Amino acid sequence: MFEEAFMVRALIAALILCPLCGLTGVYVTARRMAFFGETVAHGALAGVAVGLILGVSSSITVALFSVLIATALLWLKEKTELMTDSIMALLLSTSISLGVILMSRMRGDNRGEVHRILFGDILAVSTGDLVAAGVLAVVVMIGFITYMNELTLITANEDLALICGIPVRKYNYLFILALTLTVATSVRLVGILLVTPLLVIPSAAARNISRTLRKQIITSTGIGALCGVGGIILAYQLNVPTGPTIVLSCAGCFILTLIIKALRRPSSRKA
Questions:
Q1: CA-to-CA distance for 102 and 233, rounded, in angstroms?
Q2: What is the structure's pLDDT at 271?
Q3: Nearest to 205 by CA among 248, 256, 169
Q4: Residue range 164-215, pLDDT digits in tens
Q5: Cα 232 to the chain's mean position, in Å?
Q6: For the chain, how long is the longest CA-to-CA vector?
Q7: For the segment 17-64, what is each residue's pLDDT rounded down to a tens digit?
Q8: What share of the chain in percent tops pLDDT 70?
Q9: Among 40, 151, 166, 215, fewest CB within 10 Å belongs to which?
Q10: Which H, E and C letters describe 14-43, residue by residue?
């Protein structure tokens, strides 16, 4: 298995993107933005269609459309009185409808690419994809580590962060940009339909067994890496789709953390 180049690239991609999703997902769940990831991911569908129609790399158009969706969400949130979930539902339905219409104009030989984007195909990642993912992961992780205190305070209480002199609007935009690029890049890993669980499940599992934010970040990142690599190996051995196997591995870890949490309760009561 490890002698095959495509498997090595897939494992490297999992070690880069799954921990990145685990890290980002901690703040996503804390800020109740799981639906945002879903909205951005589905916006990528239109980006894929445009890229295939124009003959441009779908990775570029997916990133551009994802950023466009995120920017539109923030702009509508600031300029209208609509609730955030209403704006997300509006953008989600619009982007999916646009993607379906554009796909109907594509030639039949491009259908395979659409299937890979919908359900993921980490076994087809190229060296260029790995370089792009690696650069993104390094930049995002350095940013989160450097500004962890500010992001944590904004997540806990935006009003208090403003009083403390933190430029909340600036950090919110940077966080949204990091989340958007993470989602757009991870679409190649598990597909549009499964990228949100990759953000949410590791962080939810980490929250079950972690008492502090730092421990939650470390645990979520570790769970992401473990489930990413384990899911690929398991999918290879069972000859099943890789993306869903990675997500099911994350779900298995979540159940395991629930068991660990339940076992801890009696001992904590006795103490």
A1: 35
A2: 47
A3: 256
A4: 888 888 888 888 888 888 888 887 667 777 788 888 999 999 999 988 888 8
A5: 17
A6: 66
A7: 889 998 898 888 888 877 777 788 777 778 877 877 777 777 778 888
A8: 91
A9: 215
A10: HHHHHHHHHHHHHHHHHCCCHHHHHHHHHH
Calpha distance 87→82 (Å, rounded): 7
The reported pTM is: 0.81
List domains and CATH numbers for the chain: 5-263 (1.10.3470.10)
As a residue count, the chain comes to 271
* Of 211, 186, 215, 214, residue with least CA distance to 200: 186
Q: Do the Cβ atoms of 60 and 51 come closer than 8 Å?
A: yes
Other beta carbons less than 10 A from residue 213's beta carbon: 17
